[in-house]
Amino acid sequence: MERVEAWPGELRTLSTGRRVFVRHTLPGGDGGSAAAAVAAREATPIVYVHGLGGSSTNWTALMRELRDDAEQWAVDLPGFGESPPGGRHTVAEYVADVVAFLETFDRPVHLVANSLGGMICVYVAARRPDLVLTLSLVSPAMPQYRLPWAAQATAVMAVPWVGERILRTAAMIPAERQADRLAAMLFGNPAVVPVAELTFAAEQRDRWTEKPYADTVLLQALRSIVRHYTQPGRQSAWRAASHILRPTLVIMGARDALVGAWGRTRWRRALRYARLVYMPNTGHVAMMEHPRAVAEVIREFLRDASRIRTSTSTRRTLDRGMPHAVAPLAEERTHATN
Asked: Which of 1, 49, 258, 259 is least enclosed by beta carbons within 10 angstroms?
């Protein structure tokens, strides 16, 4: 079995004072022309933000598919992956961290996020449109009154003391059974994922859960998500979504056990110009389950968005009264993966 390798990275200190591990890949170098490699390096960078309990390695397969398209960066949020804990691990703190990281670029980026990362990046794009050229969300965790089975089970862990007890009990379950349970929650059909990729994901997850602060970080972040699910209207993540100025892609999996695909209806109401892509054979982490299909969807979206880009959409600040630089991409389509 060929071993999967993560993209290399390094620790960086943000202006928030917190440290994050960032993985990075440059385009070119695998037989492509020098001109193509230069063009890809000059293209808008792509930045990835993972979900709850995940890490930058969740994007390894997708980054492999898009490596010749642009320079790519994947961040471990504080306390996850290889990033040290940051004291507080809440949606608000993570929004500040992502903003701080994006401020290190000399131009707005293509921002791609999954699950908790999706909620975080909704706030980022709504509050700082000068940092974001386009927004792509894979199963974004947004407030829902109707929760799928895995989301209901996960929400129970947010109850004080209950979550700690559940995690202690889970630690006594054999690793293989834990991996099977997690795969059932994350993938629509784990059988379509190459064994090497599943092994790599399990190794990365085990590496993080063995860290002494992992349970604390997980529960703090989970409880913050639940609080945001119950926020009143003006503070709601859906309210933030309605203020996004950038072309937005939302990918939803029909077999997502954590974020119900019925959220597509709410996205159509909240953001008129979102492109919605429905993947019928897919679970919560489409970029890991069907990386090639997701790469195709993102590549097409970025190409279509670039065709209608206005001069205002590349500016780092928006002047008062500036018209919305939103792509006319409103549509919903189904993308069959197998």
From this structure: 1
Give me the residue label for tokens 């709850």: 52
Tell the CATH topology of 9-334.
Rossmann fold (3.40.50)
Give the closest residue to 61 by CA, choosing from 293, 284, 291, 283. 291
What is d(CA 86, CA 44) in angstroms, rounded to the nearest whole number? 29
Please list the residues that pair with 277 across neighbouring strands. Answer: 251, 333
Phi-psi category of 97—alpha, beta or left, where left has phi over 0 and alpha has psi -120 to 50?
A: alpha
| Per-residue model confidence as pLDDT tens digits over 101-112 | 999 999 999 999
Give tens-digit pLDDT for 140-190: 999 987 888 778 888 888 888 787 787 778 777 777 777 788 888 899 999
CA distances from 294 to 10, 17, 135, 168, 215 (A): 26, 34, 14, 36, 31
**Closest residue by Cα to residue 46 from 138, 140, 116, 115:** 138
